[in-house]
Amino acid sequence: MLLYEGKDSFLEEIVDFKKAKYVLLPVPMDITTTYLKGTKFGPRSIIEASRSLENYDSELDFEVKDVIFTSGELEIPPDATKAIDVIKSTVSDVLLEKKFPVLVGGEHTITYGASLAFGEDVVFVIFDAHADFKKDVLGSPINHASNSRLINKRNKVILVGTRSLSQEDKKDLEKSKIPIFRAQDYGGLKTNLSELKNLIKDKRVYISIDMDVFDPSLVPGVGTPQPGGILYETMLDYLKVIIGSGDLVGFDVNEVRPLGENNVTEILAAKLIVDLIALRETN
User: Fold this and answer.
1) Which residues have a Cβ under 8 Å from the Cβ of 8 and sit 6 or more positions away?
2) Are strands 247-254 and 22-27 parallel, antiparallel or unpaired?
3) The pTM is what?
4) How far is CA 233 from the centre of its chain?
5) Is 209 helix (H, G, I), strand (E, B) or coil?
6) How far is CA 188 from the centre of its chain?
7) pLDDT digits (tens, 9 = 90+) for 48-96
């Protein structure tokens, strides 16, 4: 096992690994970021922010208690390919122990590493302002702007909240027949939720949330902010449909870039983790 319990824990809970259902993996990867650096500090800041939260989810009437084992930060090598191998190996270890992996990033490339630990039947629902469908960036095919393309080589990908892509991306996405639910879709939220439900019904699903999917006026601390994002209430509507329709097998929250005293982004990210676990436990 590549796991060890860190001194600091999510929600300030020390949980025995054998008794835990969920394993939170901090992944401080910030190798291929092309705009604002600093996402490698995201995992630690999210864990710190979680200490300001109640572990009781009042909306779902569920207490997230004694179920999350917090790993120490993964040791990420400076080479992207080797970093992906570390993430894949660690998530594989968690799955072998029949635990549920929760990854906290770090740049969005961590999702690609996690995807390699799952079977090809798992559908990846990716919340992201950006399509992340570049063939390469500066000659490197493994990078945060190619995350969706890399995952789509093995697993079905569905994009939600996407509002930034190139014309080349658009053509490649259409050719790959990847469903995209835009942040401001003409069909409306109700139509989006119905279509998404049909796509994932009774399937094994992994959820990946790039925090830049939210409106930057609410969530400013991200590596690549993009105007026009979704609200937290809309995110919960999507998550309820996904978890209520499919079998959630893993999730990650990534691309938090700490801004110092303004830690609203980290607090929202930590709350997302609590809500996702509460939703899974009550469905």
Assistant:
1) 44, 47, 48, 70
2) unpaired
3) 0.94
4) 17
5) strand
6) 24
7) 999 999 988 888 899 999 999 999 999 999 999 999 999 999 999 999 9
pLDDT of residue 2: 47
Cα gap 254→129, rounded to integer Å: 12
Query: 26: helix, coil or strand?
Result: strand
Domain segments of the chain: what residues? 10-281
Residue 107 makes CB contacts below 8 A (sequence gap 6+) with: 29, 30, 31, 32, 33, 39, 40, 144, 223, 254, 255
- Residue 126: both structure tokens together: 């990716």
Taking the C-alpha atoms of residue 202 and residue 194, their distance in angstroms, rounded to an integer, is 14
10-281 domain in CATH 3.40.800.10?
A: yes
Q: Tell how far CA 106 is from the center of its chain.
A: 10
Task: Scan for tokens 């401001």, then name that residue.
Answer: 184
DSSP 164: B
The answer, yes or no, to whether residue 4 has pLDDT greater than 80, is: no
